[in-house]
């Protein structure tokens, strides 16, 4: 599951857990982006903070791991490169790439979109406020999956933290504490 995870929240975790159960996955690898190409105009928290928050959020689940492939690759992150590296690390794995309804809608605009379908199977999960449509995408390349609806976004968590509002119960406890400890999102100007 790729994402900016700025910060990781319970919407991500529920989607990953549901995909793992329903698709009988052995492992869900969370892959925080290095520099997300779609968010180049926005201020994104340093990749080390985002990586560590993802580690904290997933630490208690034996099925969840976090990969540094995107954080450690210099330059802008493209999913085609992510999948290439994950494949090299796991030559025999069946790879599934988990995305939310909003992300799958943009996938045709991603770099080398036509190559992606052969590199992994895509899973598009429902997300409140977004219409899940896989129109125009190869029918055998994408599985639609309804997951428990959590209307949580990282943008909203950042805004709340910036405004001094609580993010308790939107993100895992350890992530609330990490945000406070490092003063993340403080004085955030609106995006
Ligand atoms: P931002 O608001 O900064 O874009 P985000 O909440 O969308 O953050 P991302 O890191 O952009 O989080 O998302 C990573 C992946 O998780 C994307 O595929 C996104 O669609 C999916 N996702 C995020 N939040 C949810 C949610 N509440 N339910 C289901 N999928 C989600
Ligand atoms: Mg997003």
Brief summary of the model shown:
This protein has a three-stranded parallel sheet with strand order 1-2-4. Strands 6-7-8 form a three-stranded parallel sheet. The protein has a two-stranded parallel ribbon with strand order 3-5.
Features of the shown structure:
single chain, 191 residues, alpha/beta, Rossmann fold, 3-stranded parallel β-sheet, 8 helices, 8 strands, globular, binds adenosine-5'-triphosphate, binds magnesium ion, Rossmann-like_a/b/a_fold, Probable nicotinate-nucleotide adenylyltransferase, NAD
Care to describe what's here?
This protein has 191 residues and is of the alpha/beta class. It has one domain: 3-Layer(aba) Sandwich (Rossmann fold), CATH 3.40.50. Helices cover 38% and strands 15% of the residues. The protein contains eight helices and eight strands. The longest helix has 13 residues. The radius of gyration is 16 Å and the shape is globular. The two termini are 24 Å apart. Bound molecules: adenosine-5'-triphosphate and magnesium ion (MG). Adenosine-5'-triphosphate binds next to helix 1, strand 6, helix 5 and helix 7.
Q: What percentage of residues falls in helices of 4 or more residues? A: 25-40%
CATH architecture: 3-Layer(aba) Sandwich
Distance between the termini: 24 Å
CATH class: Alpha Beta
Q: Under CATH, the topology is which?
A: Rossmann fold
In CATH, the homologous superfamily goes by the name HUPs
Tally of separate helices: 8
Beta-strand content:
5-15%
Question: Which regions contain 5 or more consecutive residues with pLDDT less than 50?
Answer: none
* Alpha carbon gyration radius: 16 Å
Sketch the topology as an H/E string, one letter per element: EHEEHEHEHEHHEEHH
**SS elements, strand count:** 8
Biggest sheet strand line-up: 1-2-4
Bound molecules: adenosine-5'-triphosphate, magnesium ion
**Anisotropy-based shape:** globular
Q: Indicate how many domains the architecture comprises.
A: 1
**Overall pLDDT:** 94
Q: Determine the structural class based on helices, strands and strand pairing.
A: alpha/beta
- Describe the largest sheet: 3 strands, parallel
Domain Cytidyltransferase-like: 1-160
Pathway: Cofactor biosynthesis; NAD(+) biosynthesis; deamido-NAD(+) from nicotinate D-ribonucleotide: step 1/1
Keywords: ATP-binding, NAD, Nucleotide-binding, Nucleotidyltransferase, Pyridine nucleotide biosynthesis, Transferase
Family: Belongs to the NadD family.
């Amino acid at each position: 599951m790729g994402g900016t995870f700025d910060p990781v929240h319970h919407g991500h975790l529920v989607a990953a857990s549901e995909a793992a159960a329903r698709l009988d996955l052995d492992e869900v690898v969370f892959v925080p982006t290095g520099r997300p190409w779609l968010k180049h105009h926005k201020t994104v928290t340093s990749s080390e903070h985002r990586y560590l928050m993802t580690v904290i959020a997933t630490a208690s689940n034996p099925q969840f791991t976090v990969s540094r492939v995107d954080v450690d690759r210099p330059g802008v992150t493209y999913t085609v490169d992510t999948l290439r590296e994950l494949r090299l690390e796991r030559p025999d794995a069946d790879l599934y790439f988990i995305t939310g309804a909003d992300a799958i809608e943009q996938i045709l605009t991603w770099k080398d979109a036509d190559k992606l379908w052969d590199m992994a199977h895509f899973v598009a999960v429902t997300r409140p406020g977004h219409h899940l449509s896989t129109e125009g995408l190869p029918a055998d390349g994408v599985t639609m999956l309804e997951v428990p609806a959590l209307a949580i976004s990282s943008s909203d968590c950042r805004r709340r933290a910036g405004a001094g509002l609580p993010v308790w119960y939107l993100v895992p406890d350890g992530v609330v504490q990490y945000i406070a400890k490092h003063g993340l999102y403080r004085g955030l100007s609106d995006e």
